Amino acid sequence: MEKLFKLREHGTTVSKEIVAGLTTFLTMAYILAVNPGMLGSIGNGMTPAAVFTATVIASGIATLVMAFTANLPVALAPGMGLNAFFTYTVVFGMGYSWQTALTAVFLEGILFIVLSFFNVREAIVKAIPSNLKKAVAVGIGLFIALIGMSNAHIVINDATAVQAGVAAPGTILGLNLGSPDALVAMIGLGVIIILYTLKVPGAVLLGIIATTLIGIPFGVTSIPEGFSPVDVPAAPLLFQFNFHEVFSFKFFTVFFTFLFVDIFDTVGTLVGVTTQAGLIDKNGNIPKVKQALLADAVGTVAGAALGTSTVTSYVESTSGVAAGGRTGMTSLVTGILFFIALFFSPLFLLIPSAATAPALIFVGFLMMTAVTTIDFKDPTEGIPAFLAIIMMPFAYSIAEGIVYGILSYVLLKLITGKFKDISVVTWIIAIIFVLRFFL
Q1: Are 362 and 204 in contact (CB under 8 A)?
Q2: Fewer beta carbons below 10 Å: N end or C end of the chain?
């Protein structure tokens, strides 16, 4: 392990990496329930069981590629948001078959592999200004904290956009005792904070396990009658493609949307996770970014071939980093656990969102520390950083935060005559963003 992942060089140990890999897996294990439920609702041959198998195998493959080629503590799985776009916009909204949607994902992945070999995606990552990279890390922290609070119903949708879970008579800290998810999540968050403050190793992982157990008497963690932790995996939907409509403009719109969101969700996630892990160099560059982006592309192609939506790097990887993960060994452990999950799906699906929510919220705090290094004194640097930070949670999209950050950066540099601060690639990205609005 030392020779393969250079553990001493990264200031870590085998035990830390194992705990980190477990933490990352448990924090993102919700995708093993959410993705089959969402894509499985399409029907017409796309069953939840088949999607579960595809999700597990594609996630395992992509995460192992990340481990052995990029040596980064980043796990991959079908992306949230992209699976919703796949299901509700492409299939239900535009009327495409799920086979056509998988074809768009497959072709997008092929193009990603080509772009990775020619360093186009690497150039995109390097072109993001240093202050914006830091802002992306902060924005992702707020974004995943919001995901955690939303999953646990600590905050809910309301006519005022969002509000505290339930501020009614008989509440504790604004939480209605009739909302067990929120109450259990808050208890779990308290457990993680106490363990972390006391410097207990693996505080985040222990918090997830403790919260899952605490959820049993509250009815949040549900153990079905006749429960068995072992199950036989269903067959995936292999190579279910439809190339008949690939030259239509509607198909191009679908293809471009998958392409756009995947590129910038992945870039944003890699920047955030590696910044949190302290792996960014003095120039703000990600080590082995080409290999990291290639892992994402390979995962997307594998996922489409198996029968699931776009595979991308997961912001939940920051929970593993918070647990001490610094190398690809963290990803190796997570990848192995994905494959084990093939046979233990009922057991992993027991972990409720209320148990993973505290980990996401706490990691949001850890990622906020990067905000102190952003140059807010220069408006041409501080305002784009601010917009990138707030747009991620408010628009519920990492990609949108990058869009507003880049466009405002270019605009303000132009207005103030600081043309030299804008790289050629940044110009190209900004132009693509502008064209996106028209498309």
Answers
A1: yes
A2: C
Give the other-Cβ count within 10 Å of 217's Cβ: 10
Sequence spans of domains, the chain: 2-128+197-208+215-352
Would you state the structure tokens that stand for residue 109, as one six-digit string? 């992945």
Instruction: Give CA angle at 309 (304, 312), nearest 5°.
Output: 100
For the CA atoms of 220, 225, 229, 233, the dihedral, rounded to the nearest 10 degrees, stands at: -100
The residue type of 279 is: L
Give tens-digit pLDDT for 333-359.
999 999 999 998 777 778 888 888 888
356 near 151, Cβ under 8 Å?
yes
Look up residue 292 and give its two tokens. 């990291």
pLDDT at position 163 is 61
Once rounded to an integer, what is the mean pLDDT over residues 188-202? 88
Digit-coded pLDDT (tens) for 406-439: 999 999 999 999 988 998 888 988 888 888 777 6
CA distance 193 to 214: 16
